[in-house]
């Protein structure tokens, strides 16, 4: 069974290309920077393990990272 965070069903080739262009990875190489503390992250819905990103469609892991990581200002 495919992990819901890896399920790209219905995600268009254009959106997959955006993800690739931003060099998204499932596991951040930087200890303190990852999707779940990025200003552009869309948190998972209730009972879901993966969220999304405002920059491209499809599932995004909280542990992920890409070239556009931006700190949350608070
Ligand atoms: Fe993750 Fe990059 Fe989207 Fe930030 S911009 S949530 S680091 S994929």
Could you describe the 3D structure shown?
The protein has 74 residues and is an alpha+beta fold. It has a single domain, classed as High-Potential Iron-Sulfur Protein, Chain A, CATH 4.10.490. It contains one helix and three strands. Strands 1-2-3 form a three-stranded antiparallel β-sheet. The longest helix has 9 residues, at 13-21. 20% of the residues are buried. It binds iron/sulfur cluster. Residues 22, 24, 35, 38, 40-41, 53, 55, 60, 64-66, 68-69 line the site of iron/sulfur cluster.
Write the layout of secondary structure elements.
Elements: H1 13-21, E1 41-42, E2 51-53, E3 56-60
Antiparallel strand pairs: 1-2, 2-3
Bound molecules: iron/sulfur cluster (SF4).
Iron/sulfur cluster binds at residues 22, 24, 35, 38, 40-41, 53, 55, 60, 64-66, 68-69.
Which small molecules are bound? iron/sulfur cluster
Largest sheet: 3 strands, antiparallel
Q: Report the C-alpha radius of gyration, rounded.
A: 12 Å
What's the average pLDDT?
Answer: 96
| CATH top level label | Few Secondary Structures
Q: What fraction, in percent, of the residue positions are helical?
A: 10-25%
Instruction: Find the count of extended strands (DSSP E, 2+ residues).
Output: 3
Strand content: 5-15%
The assigned CATH architecture is Irregular
Order of helices and strands: HEEE
Largest sheet: spatial strand order: 1-2-3
- Structural class comes to alpha+beta
What is the name of the CATH superfamily?
High potential iron-sulphur protein
Note the gap between the termini. Answer: 39 Å
User: What would the principal axes of the Cα set say about the shape?
Assistant: globular
Number of helices: 1
CATH fold description: High-Potential Iron-Sulfur Protein, Chain A
